[in-house]
Specification:
By secondary structure, the chain is α/β, with parallel strands linked by helices. About 40% of the residues lie in helices and about 10% in strands. The protein has 9 helices and 6 strands. The strands form 2 sheets. It has a 4-stranded mixed beta sheet, with helices on both faces. The chain has a two-stranded parallel sheet with strand order 1-2. Helix 3 (about 55-65) links the parallel strand 1 and strand 2 (about 70-75). Helix 2 (about 30-40) crosses helix 3 and helix 6 (about 135-145) crosses helix 9.
């Protein structure tokens, strides 16, 4: 096993960022070997104290090395203070390192690739879901509950759809005739249609046989479990 040092970690961060963006970074070589020994090619690696995202780079390097499809979840905080209210380690260092590795033209990072979503958490009372939860946030939560990859929500159109393997997810902001025809072609398939007012939508869809659910009720049940 190759055991690196904090000096190695610091040099790697400087290479990626062009500056000393993070103190006491873990060495990639050490984390890569730990991941190699403890995971299989399709596993998910969680680092709950992600810091400068050394673990993400280690997973990316190992996937490039053995052709694996490991995924990672990096968790970090803002670390905002009264003196630095805009300090956001997760945004400016953790996620930024992955972005830079993906976009790097450095030959030693040429084979590294990890499409990812940058997500933020916030607390919302269940009774305020209807008012405080943005459609894009509800969309991401519903995709997660159905095991679908996350996609961008387009709030400029009346409804969004995500057709995955074996399941289709639809979230309706406002009804239009095109939705009726689109769903009629997929009647009796594994289609889940979500709306904030499902009863009204059910009346509009008439005899189209799809599963119609309440956005609010589904999210409340899902996150209370």
């Amino acid at each position: 096993m190759v055991s690196g040092t904090n000096d190695e970690g610091a040099k790697t961060v400087r290479t990626v960022f062009g500056s000393k963006a993070f103190n006491y970074a873990k060495p990639v070589s050490l984390i890569r070997e730990l991941v190699r020994q403890s995971t299989g090619p399709g596993d998910i690696v969680l680092d709950f104290f992600a810091g400068s995202a050394t673990t993400a780079q280690a997973v990316m390097e190992l996937n490039a090395e053995d052709g694996g499809d490991r995924r990672f979840i990096m968790v970090s905080s803002t670390e905002a203070t009264e003196d630095e209210p805009d300090k956001n380690l997760c945004r400016d260092v953790t996620a930024e390192r992955v972005r830079r590795l993906n976009a790097s033209d450095d030959p030693k990072y040429a084979d590294l690739a990890a499409p990812f979503a940058y997500l933020r958490t916030r607390e919302i009372a269940f009774e305020d879901l209807d008012y405080d939860l943005a459609p894009k946030d509800a969309w991401a939560a519903l995709e997660t509950l159905h095991g679908l990859p996350l996609t961008l929500y387009d709030d400029a159109i009346p409804w969004n759809a995500h057709e995955g393997d074996g399941v289709t997810l639809v979230m309706v902001d406002r009804f239009d005739a095109a939705l009726l025809e689109w769903l009629r072609e997929r009647s009796r398939q594994n289609v889940f249609v979500y709306a904030w007012a499902p009863g009204q939508l059910a009346r509009e869809l008439g005899d189209v046989e799809v599963e119609i659910r309440s956005v609010r009720d589904t999210l409340v049940r899902g996150f209370q479990q």
